[in-house]
Amino acid sequence: MKSTLKMGRDLIAFSPRLARLAASVLGSPLRYLKGDLAQKSQIIISLPDTQLALVNNLATVADVMSDKQGTYPKSADLELLLRPLIGRGVFAQPGGEPVKQTRKTYVRALSQLTDEEVATVSTRMTRRYLEAWRRNPRSVRIPSELSRLTIDIVTETTLGCCFTAEESQRFTALFFEYHKKANPLLLLLTPKSADDRADLLARLGLEKVGAEMRDLIRHRFLTPLLQEDPVACAAPFARVLLDSTQESNDGARRLADAPSRQTAILDEIAVMLLAGHETSASVLSWLLWELADMPDEQREIRRLLHGGKMQSGSADSAPERESGITADRRVAALISESLRLHPPIALLLRETTKDMAVGDRHLPADSFVVVSPWTLQRHPDRWENAQAFLPSRWLSDLPPPALQDRMAFIPFGQGPRVCPGKRFAEVELHAILSELMRNCAFSRPRGRSPKPLGTLTSRPDRDFRLVVEQQQA
């Protein structure tokens, strides 16, 4: 690990223009989180201008995530990587009162959506995609199709409209490209001088990709607000955003007359769109990949979803009432296990605002601290058969022993920066997976297995295909 990091660091130190070569040398950040390295209580790594601590001790994790003293804000490097895409949107901002107020905007908007509304839209949209798959019975590109589906769900429920098919295809392709370019290791290993950082970011090519994505968002979701379209303006998130930005510095009541207000709204729509779909799409992609190699599990969940009825050709015989496991519980177990083994945000990057003691080590101000759901949720001291996909661990009468400490399972984060869309995602995931499992059987064609990309999220590193066969009740 140290030799690879040193090689990447030396390349960048020699010239930020070598960013692409350095990215190839470094690879995914997750490649380093394995074996004994990922199991240590904490690891301290020297960087060009500072240090980085990866912490697995649950008491230290709780301290970092709760951040009661405001000493572990989100890293400014995350903001630099995401700025071409979300501008000054709340997701990447370090913290402080403006972040608290903007997060309340998200909470207010999402609280207007009932679980039933989210489930209804999720089911309807999933059926629409299933119909398209029936018309084209080839193997399906799972990550991109699920990204398009979850984008449709979050925009329909919060903004009142969706991308066209062509727009969503382009948007998801661009987002995948953005992921591949935005490797945080490059920034961590780059000296913190403004010139070096600016040169590196220019070489990553994020501005062009982000600008095209923002243009798509602007055209489809901001323009209707500028035109005062009644449906768009009445949608939950749009309505709360319009209200919360009314007292902007523009001094104008009409959005069309307030440029800075338009930018602020565009930034937060970008955040809602990106954060609101990526978690679900990533978790579902990995879940379907795992299930595609588990035909018996698929038959059992399908049987339960059809009310315990036998399916033609199924070898299952125990009725639901004998097993004691309901369809909802089985679906929830599958989702929990995918969230555990494939947390969508694998690395949570924080910084220290002052000299700190992290565990038994001293870290100077402006050091990096990484909390990794990836390592916490795969730690063999806390999870039996930690590297295996075992939904059954969630089906016993008692929760997994690891959950005795809430920091051992944090797929949506924890503390004041916990994902405000957690409940939305849970309901959405349950509705989508239920509809897919009720109607489809998935299998893997030949080919190499995907790996987690591990840059911004742990989404698969390629748009893998699965064979999808429609099933009859």
Q: State the CATH topology.
A: Cytochrome p450
Sheet/helix structural class? alpha+beta
Task: Give the % helix.
Answer: 40-55%
Shape: globular
Oligomer: single chain
Summarize the main sheet: 4 strands, mixed
Low-confidence stretches: 310-322
From the alpha-carbon coordinates, what is the Rg to the nearest angstrom?
A: 23 Å
Number of strands: 9
Specify the CATH class: Mainly Alpha
* Total number of helices: 20
Write out the strand line-up for the largest beta sheet, numbering strands in chain order: 1-2-7-4
Query: Per DSSP, what share of the residues sits in E-state strands of 2 or more residues?
Result: 5-15%
**The CATH homologous superfamily:** Cytochrome P450
| CATH architecture annotation | Orthogonal Bundle
Query: N-to-C SSE series?
Result: HHHEEHHHHEHHHHHHHHHHHEEEEHHEE
Q: N- to C-terminal separation?
A: 51 Å
Question: Please, what is the average pLDDT?
Answer: 87
Please, how many domains? 1
